[in-house]
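User: Hey, my collaborator sent me this sequence without any context and asked if I could get a structure. I don't really work with proteins. Can you help?
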Amino acid sequence: MSTVTASITEPANSIEGSDPYTCWLSFSITPVQSFIEAARTLRDLSVGSALLVTLTAEAIRAGQQAGGKLLYPVLQAARDGRETWHGIPNQFVITCLPDQEAEIAKAMLDAACSAWTKLAVEVKAELDRLWKPGWDAGWQEQIDRFWDIRVAAVDRAETMEGTSDTLTGQGADPTRHHWSLLTARTSAGKQVRWFRGDHGQARQKCTLFGELEQMGPAGGVADTRSWWRNCAAGTRIGAARIGANERLCAVSLVKRFASCVPAARELVGPLHACAASMPDTQEIAAAGWRAQYSGVLQSELASLDAAITAFHQALGTDASWISETRDWYLLSDQLRNSAEAWESLLGEVPAANRVKISAAAGPALDTLIAARKKLDRARRDAAVPPAPRYYAILELDGDHMGKWLSGEMPAGTAITTAHFQNMSGLLRNYAQSIKQTVENAHGQLIYAGGDDCLAVLPRDSALACAQELRKNFPQFAPGVESSTASAGIVVCHVSHNLRDALREARLSIESAKRRGRDSLAIRILKRSGGDIGVCLPWGELQALQKLTEAFIRGGSARWAGRVAELEGSIADDASGTQIGLLIKAFLQRTASGSGVEDAAMELWDVVHRATADQNRELRTNDPGSCYPCYDDGAQSWERGFWSMALGAFLEAIGSASFLAREGE
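Assistant: No problem. I've predicted the 3D structure and written it out in structure-token form, which is a compact way to encode the shape of the chain:
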């Protein structure tokens, strides 16, 4: 575990009056994204985020107890007087006296490392109690070498009068330079990657962290596979368990079970809250459907839920698992009364229980299947669509946050304690509001770190939730300059690999930022292949919504096939209006009302203008790139632009059509 401190300490020079706290310490911990995204379930996601907050919170508390003052973020005191830790970022800045720098830096580093070690020790003790000796070769090496935790330090003597002018130009704000220097030093430290070294035991890789070896006895592949299948699979601590096909390293095991050991309640932070049962992707996908149709199908849904509970009790499985897999039975079309189906269904149950089916389980499964069939009949009779099998991952991130914090936006902002308090307060209030917004959309919030958040939602409510989050994003300088945020939404099937879906969500938000920020990118990962998506400014999303609603009302999308025939055949000197007339002709023949024609024409106008704006932005950022734009000299669009615009329009049509489907 790396504990590097980079610092320069010189005689103090006060920037804000006679404040003696002239040394600023920046704490950071990595890896962040890869640690959170190494997840098979939503529980893994939530625990990964909460664990990072806990390590950071322990470091903050240690720094304050050692005599430091938290500069950013500023925490809010709860009613009992204690500080609240929800929504804090994984990086913070503490100020201290120059002669306290080394002591406080060490205290923060030791606190974070100690919290991680304590969780690891307690998780291992639980596993030692459940597993036979010999499984833990290389455990300590993986635990000790995983995190790269650093503290960068800068003394304000480096920005004393005259120094900042020399380094950054005449008239530079010394405090802004001080912040910039601290930020640069923190970033520079992260460029020196922590290499964990070779500590393997010739075993296969972990199914979550592919760079680390799985635990288990050293030996051949067959021996390790047999151990995981017969000894480790089905292991449960509290509400957390190991799946049938999982092979986990030491870091993955700590992440999986950290919320369920006593240390989670003793450490500060939200980790202990993750010990309870959590929804899975099936439950999220069906949450909006259940809320909408629970009144119509109340009796049938209650009978199905009761049958699920009885089936699990017959098999002797823990009740905490039932709430996490309830909607598997609602969505699956593979329920069959056979031992093979049970083995596939109950992969988390120990091998002995999977092979030997109890006499009570057969009738219980028959009852469950009958309840599901009864629900399906009632649903069809009431003209209710099937429960959706797709859900959405929403990621949102504030734009230019570094510039807002450093005072570059808006120009001339004074960097004072009040500046950081104002930013912290606005972001803290926003983070607290995110949870309610997500829950109102029947979703599950994974984390909200102030200016960024990650949530999983039903497909039907994801777009409206994203717009609500953007509308509520705090304005740091109202009336002077707008603060904005970009977001990415990925829609995928409940069986889609979660890590891949998270990677696509991250790529989507990067796409939104590349097109000029203050935008939303939507990516739909269809189970049948042929992924589609659209990226538009927030202000232009109304056109996409209108077409989606027109499709919901029964409008046809057959005309899109004729539009596709135009790709590659439009002259470069054509205009958007001329192409729009061709599209309108196709619409008038096949759109069949429902408002599709007007909505599609509005969307075409939005998409081709957005494509032009995006290409200009990309061309400006990379002059040598091949993004076609308008040629002022030739008075026409450069070759390939209209094919690109039509391609984007077709993907927007496909996205609207998919979002309008029910029961997919």
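In plain terms: DSSP finds 24 helices and 15 strands in the chain. You can pass these tokens on to your collaborator as they are.
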